[in-house]
Structures are given as structure tokens and as C-alpha cells.
């Protein structure tokens, strides 16, 4: 089983602004979010299939606790409440499907894939894909 535990520093990000745009975030808030999310601090603790992920930026900190295969409460990138279900997509990759609790919006998901000391985080909303590459500190 892969070990996602550790602190992670972002090395590269692609399409974050486009992701926020399809989620309906206005221009001013997108500029603030993109600047704040340029240098996130990510902490992951893993015990078997139980995960704790804390992502901190200058504007917002999010924390999620989940067990692979069990539904949990989460918020989408733009802060809407959703029910999420994380499953193993492959030996080193977690896929999490998000379902909005209220209202309509793009279909959203995230994946986290471990490749040695590199972590690839993908956020998807309909056809827009944001890729963020992290390295273990």
C-alpha cells in the first residue's frame, strides 16, 4: 500500500483559474484565490485506508478525514457542501467523486496519485481539469 503521509510543497499548478471560472467564481475572488493558492501547505496523515488531509493557504484552511470506500462530508474547491466517496483507482491513485448536497453545478471530483516523492493532485469540474504537482518535504 502506498504511503501518502508527509508534508507536501507545490511545485507546479495548471488551470486553477480555469477551474474556478467553470465553478462560477467571480473574477475578483478568482484573483485572490489564485494568489493565495500559489503556495499551499499540505499535510497528509495515513493509517491504512484512513486519511487526514489538511491544506493551508493564506486565505483558507481545509481539513478532510475519510476512509476509502466510505462516504464523507466535504466542500468543493469553491466551498459548496458535498458528499464524497474516495476509492482506489489504481495501486497508487485515489479517486474521489463529489456530489453536491444542494443545488446544481458542474460534476466535480479529485484524484491524488503518488509516484515516489511526487504527488499529483487533479481537480476536475465537467471538462476542465486542474493539475497540481507536489513534492514531499
Strand-helix topology:
Elements: E1 6-14, H1 16-22, H2 27-36, E2 41-47, E3 50-56, E4 61-67, E5 72-75, E6 81-90, E7 93-100, E8 108-115, E9 118-125, E10 128-136
Antiparallel strand pairs: 1-2, 1-10, 2-3, 3-4, 5-6, 6-7, 7-8, 8-9, 9-10
Task: Summarize the structure in short.
With 137 residues, the chain is mostly beta strands. The protein has helices at 16-22, 27-36, and strands at 6-14, 41-47, 50-56, 61-67, 72-75, 81-90, 93-100, 108-115, 118-125, 128-136. The protein has a ten-stranded antiparallel beta sheet with strand order 4-3-2-1-10-9-8-7-6-5.
Commentary on this structure:
With 137 residues, the protein is mainly beta. Helices cover 12% and strands 56% of the residues. The chain contains 2 helices and 10 strands. The protein has helices at residues 16-22, 27-36; strands at residues 6-14, 41-47, 50-56, 61-67, 72-75, 81-90, 93-100, 108-115, 118-125, 128-136. It has a 10-stranded antiparallel beta sheet with strand order 4-3-2-1-10-9-8-7-6-5. A hairpin with a 4-residue loop joins strand 3 (50-56) and strand 4. The chain is globular, with a radius of gyration of 14 Å.
Features of the shown structure:
137 residues, ten-stranded antiparallel beta sheet, mainly beta, single chain
Q: Low-confidence spans: pLDDT under 50, at least 5 residues?
A: none
Overall residue-averaged pLDDT value: 95
Tell me the major beta sheet. 10 strands, antiparallel
Count of beta strands: 10
* Secondary-structure-derived class: mainly beta
End-to-end distance, in Å? 20 Å
Q: Give the strand line-up of the largest sheet.
A: 4-3-2-1-10-9-8-7-6-5
Helix share bin = 10-25%
Helix count, per DSSP? 2
Strand-residue proportion: over 45%
Query: So what's the overall shape?
Result: globular
Q: What is the alpha-carbon Rg in Å?
A: 14 Å
Q: Could you state the order of secondary-structure elements as H and E? A: EHHEEEEEEEEE
Amino acid at each position: 500500500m502506498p504511503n501518502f503521509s508527509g508534508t507536501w510543497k507545490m511545485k507546479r499548478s495548471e488551470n486553477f483559474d480555469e477551474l474556478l471560472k467553470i465553478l462560477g467564481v467571480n473574477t475578483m475572488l478568482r484573483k485572490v484565490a489564485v494568489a493565495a493558492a500559489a503556495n499551499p501547505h499540505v499535510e497528509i496523515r495515513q493509517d491504512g485506508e484512513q486519511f487526514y488531509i489538511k491544506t493551508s493557504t493564506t486565505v483558507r484552511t481545509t481539513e478532510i478525514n475519510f476512509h476509502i470506500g466510505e462516504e464523507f462530508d466535504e466542500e468543493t474547491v469553491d466551498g459548496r457542501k458535498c458528499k464524497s466517496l474516495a476509492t482506489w483507482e489504481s495501486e497508487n491513485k485515489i479517486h474521489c467523486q463529489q456530489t453536491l448536497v444542494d443545488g446544481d453545478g458542474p460534476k466535480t471530483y479529485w484524484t491524488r496519485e503518488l509516484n515516489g516523492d511526487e504527488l499529483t493532485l487533479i481537480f476536475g469540474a465537467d471538462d476542465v481539469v486542474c493539475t497540481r504537482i507536489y513534492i514531499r518535504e
